[in-house]
Amino acid sequence: MSGIRCVTEGLEFPEGPVGYPDGTVVLSEMAAGRITRVSPDGTTECVAHVGGGPNGIGLLPDGRLVVCQNGGSTFGTGFWPYDFAGAAQVFRPVGAAEQPLTPALQLVDPDGSVHTLTTEFRARSGRRLPLIRPSDVCVDSAGGFYVTDGGTTHDRQRTMTGLLYGTPDGELEEIVYPLEMPNGVALSPDGSRVYVAETRTRRVWEFQLSAPGRITGARGLATVPSGGPLNIGGADGLCVSADGTILVATLGAGGVTAFAPSGKMIGALPLDDPMTTNMALGADDVLYVTLASSGRLVAVDDWRSALSR
User: What is the value of pTM for the model shown?
Assistant: First the structure.
């Protein structure tokens, strides 16, 4: 993996990285129920024990973190994405948590204190409904945030979920429904569009905004290609660069897929973990990527040049 450096390893299913101006990265360790700070030299420290299964993280203007708490899972080595001969065996969620938490949005204060912000949202019908499995979050310039609820599968039934918009006072409303396993979410540089990745369909949606949390239009922007030994794929976390390039963590093939704002695929950055879950741009435009099944955070200093085209 030329041009790609490992910042730290030994993480327990990392997700949701947030890059800070000083070069540190805060991320979630989903299998450990904690939020962790990674320094540029690779040393780590616990920011907060949140329990359950923390996934996406957003940094609020006042320095607090909003955390997507999915309730937790049991982790182990299992077949992925399906149980058949030749499928990969990776470290991943393999079942329900023995002692699950109620799915919620949590707030983490700078001193590490943890509070529950909300466990429910207002659906487009007006009903109050419980969060099912919050997945990812991005914060806008107004201090509000967009949240995806990935939902769950039970036997042969799957919950349909959507995109939510919330504020730090605990208000959370549904603004798009339905979506199929929505996951990564990120804003365009000018805040006029919000992008959402659907994991199973590999589709990236673009929603136009007239104001924070107000949708005025939509289009299917792009589809992440399949790849890897089994030619499978999935779209996980999202981030957007200052020039509008949309970066999608790509499951199955492993790595990152890059798209222009038009939706045209620019290239791909191959990585050696099929569970490439999320990424963030940090100081000096360094791209930080979480490789969840192998427990690593890697950095790509010149990610544009590293893209294969």
Answer: 0.97
